[in-house]
Amino acid sequence: MNDQDIRTCECDCGEEIQDCDCRCVCEKTGKYVKPNRTTLKCGSHGSVTIPAATLTGTTFTLAVVNVNTKGYRGPCIKFDFAGSIAVTGAAITLNFQIFKQCKGQLVPVPVGPVWTFSRLIEVTESDSFRFFSCDCDICDDGCCVYSVVASVTGVLPDINETIGSTVINNVSLSAIIVDNM
User: Fold this and answer.
1) Ramachandran class of 168: left when φ > 0, alpha when ψ lies in -120 to 50, beta otherwise
2) Which of 20, 86, 91, 176 is 20 to 30 A from 126, comparing alpha carbons?
């Protein structure tokens, strides 16, 4: 066989062969792959009003979603939080954090990073605020309550209370649970 006799053929299974016959041989693994289990959970919706003169350190639970991971293999959960924050003549800094409390736990545990919303000058405006976080550190048969908590963390230097009023509304928390194995 010389170089002119060699042809390249493409097979349906993605193989590429070089020979005169262009005969494709596709191997099947014969292994059945289970589809990944996926569930979408939507949590509670609501709103919170933070009045003027609210002290630094005050916390508010904004949304809650219950998640049951029974039957999942190495579950992983993606959380999406969204809300609208309207400030009226306000200066405020808020930290948002997701917490989980599973069966047998006495104290909620933080999940993911802290997200910050801040208005350092007295303004009247409305902003949408959203973030996502993931939790892949879960027992396979855990039933947990996840909540988003906002805390007043500071306003201006040397001021320990909010100025003006703030309303956090149209709040939603959703969870997408998937097998991670």
Assistant:
1) beta
2) 176
CA–CA–CA angle 103, 71, 177 (5° rounding): 80
Q: Is 147 exposed, middle or buried (0-12, 13-18, 19+ CB in 10 A)?
A: buried
pLDDT digits (tens, 9 = 90+) for 69-84: 888 888 899 999 999 9
Cα(177)–Cα(41) distance, integer angstroms: 8
Is this model's pTM higher than 0.85 or not? no
Q: Give the residue from 134, 146, 18, 26 showing the smallest Cα distance to 79.
A: 134
Length of the chain as a residue count: 181
Burial environment of residue 36 by CB neighbours within 10 A (0 to 12, 13 to 18, 19 or more): exposed
| Alpha-carbon Rg for the chain in angstroms | 26
CA distances from 120 to 27, 60, 89, 131, 138 (A): 64, 20, 11, 21, 38
Task: Tell me the backbone φ, ψ of residue 28, rounded to 5 degrees.
Answer: -105, 140
Given this model, what pLDDT does residue 16 score? 52
Can you tell me the distance from the alpha carbon of 27 to that of 56, in angstroms, rounded to the nearest whole number?
Answer: 65
Cα 164 from Cα 162, distance rounded (Å): 6
